[in-house]
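Hi R.,

As promised on Friday, here is the backbone we talked about, encoded as structure tokens. Could you run it through your design pipeline when you get a chance and send me back a sequence?
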């Protein structure tokens, strides 16, 4: 009787084990992006940075329509007032509501960061892909060009180019659009070099892989190999560089506006607000405190997002 009971117990345990194995094998394997999202969620600072950045983006898009104070209305009687219930971030020398101007300025500053990043990513990816794939003389020439741009003093060159081309661009495209094109173009053209080096390194490694040789044997052309087979596998460092490039572009635009060579005075940007508030920092510190705080939080959030993407996408930096 005991042997029969023991046999039944063993059979039941084997059935349970087979059921567990079947349940595990029945689960769908995780995709690359689901694994990346799973790793990204473990990075608490990256998640916090994502929420902060999304909050800033939504606030700058929707906030000006919901806030009852105008960014351009002048109230000299309320000039240089500190934070209050009516003006949560105080007012400037002309009585402008600082909170309303920060909301409007975020549209310009974030737009400059994103578009300048797209320009630099496009140029860097294109040059890095051509250099890494073709190699030899093309690689040597493009890398010497990259070294030349890296050796240029970025900020003095930015100031010189904007000073020389500011008036022609404003006359051709208008004041706001002309300055936007000029600032975005200059920042993008002077910040593609790190991306080009990253993409080149990835192409040098991937072009010798077996799946690339197989694609060549099947008759795939050069453009197909570059854009369909190699480039999708080289996007992880590009994505990380893109997030960090947004923060760098925002700081650069703020620096230009702070030095008085950015957007015109009637266009509030975070850097312009800092520039206008520096003269009154002793009597009205809120004029530089709040614009500096939003620049700091936005750039810090973007950097944490870049760290989280690096850990999630790059297999060499798993959590």
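Update: got your reply. Pasting your designed sequence below so it's all in one thread:
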């Amino acid at each position: 009787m005991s042997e029969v009971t023991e046999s039944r117990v063993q059979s039941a345990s084997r059935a349970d084990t087979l059921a567990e194995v079947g349940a595990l094998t029945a689960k769908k394997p995780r995709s690359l992006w689901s694994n990346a999202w799973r790793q990204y969620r473990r990075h608490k600072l990256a998640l916090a940075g994502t929420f902060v950045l999304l909050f800033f983006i939504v606030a700058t898009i929707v906030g000006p329509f919901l806030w009852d104070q105008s960014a351009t209305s002048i109230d000299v009687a309320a000039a240089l007032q500190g934070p209050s219930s009516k003006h949560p971030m105080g007012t400037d020398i002309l009585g402008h509501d600082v909170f309303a101007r920060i909301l409007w300025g975020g549209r310009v500053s974030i737009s400059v960061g994103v578009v300048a990043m797209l320009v630099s990513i496009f140029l860097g990816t294109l040059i890095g892909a051509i250099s890494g794939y073709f190699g030899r003389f093309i690689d040597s020439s493009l890398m010497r060009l990259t070294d030349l741009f890296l050796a240029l003093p970025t900020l003095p060159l930015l100031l010189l180019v904007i000073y020389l081309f500011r008036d022609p661009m404003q006359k051709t495209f208008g004041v706001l659009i002309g300055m936007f094109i000029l600032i975005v173009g200059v920042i993008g053209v002077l910040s593609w070099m790190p991306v080009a080096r990253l993409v080149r390194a990835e192409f040098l490694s991937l072009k010798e892989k077996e799946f690339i040789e197989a694609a060549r044997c099947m008759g795939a052309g050069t453009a197909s190999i570059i854009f369909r087979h190699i480039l999708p596998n080289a996007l992880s460092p590009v994505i990380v560089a893109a997030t960090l490039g947004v923060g760098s572009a925002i700081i650069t635009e703020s620096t230009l506006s702070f030095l008085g060579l950015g957007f015109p005075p009637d266009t509030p940007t975070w850097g312009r607000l800092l520039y206008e508030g520096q003269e009154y920092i002793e009597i009205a510190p809120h004029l530089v405190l709040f614009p500096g705080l939003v620049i700091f939080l936005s750039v810090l959030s973007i950097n944490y997002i870049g760290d989280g993407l690096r850990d999630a996408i790059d297999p060499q930096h798993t959590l």
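One thing I noticed while checking it: The chain has one domain: 43-317.

Thanks again,
M.
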